[in-house]
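Postdoc handover notes: sequence design on the structure in folder B. Input C-alpha cells:
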C-alpha cells in the first residue's frame, strides 16, 4: 500500500471553490478505486496550502485508477471546474509508504 499526498497552492480568496472541488472528489475517487483519506483546506496558518490524501495498492493500480478517474463523469466535470475557476495555482504529488505500522493503541488520559 502506498499513500498519495497532493499538495495544493490555492488562491487564498477561493477557498470555497476548493471545498466544492474536494467534496466532488469525495465521491469520484472512491468510486474509481482509491481509498480517500480526505482533502484538507487551510484553517489556521497558511491561507494557501491544502492537501488531498489517499491510499492505493501500487503505482500500477494508481495508473489504472487515473484512467478510470479521467473517464468518470464527475471526475471530468471536476477537472473542468478547476480549470475554469483557476483556484489551484500549483499542484504537486508524492507517493509515500507508511513504515511505522503497526501502531500501538491510543492512550486516552
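Designed sequence:
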Amino acid at each position: 500500500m502506498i499513500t498519495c499526498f497532493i499538495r495544493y497552492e490555492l488562491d487564498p480568496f477561493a477557498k470555497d471553490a476548493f471545498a466544492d472541488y474536494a467534496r466532488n472528489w469525495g465521491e469520484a475517487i472512491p468510486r474509481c478505486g482509491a481509498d480517500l483519506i480526505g482533502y484538507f483546506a487551510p484553517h489556521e496558518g497558511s491561507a494557501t496550502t491544502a492537501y488531498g490524501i489517499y491510499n492505493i495498492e501500487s503505482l500500477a493500480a494508481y495508473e489504472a485508477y487515473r484512467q478510470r478517474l479521467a473517464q468518470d463523469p464527475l471526475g471530468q466535470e471536476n477537472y473542468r471546474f478547476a480549470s475554469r475557476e483557476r483556484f489551484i495555482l500549483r499542484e504537486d504529488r508524492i507517493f509515500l509508504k507508511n513504515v511505522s505500522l503497526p501502531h500501538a493503541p491510543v492512550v486516552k488520559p
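Context for whoever picks this up: Residues 15-32 form the longest helix (18 residues). Don't rerun without checking with the PI first.
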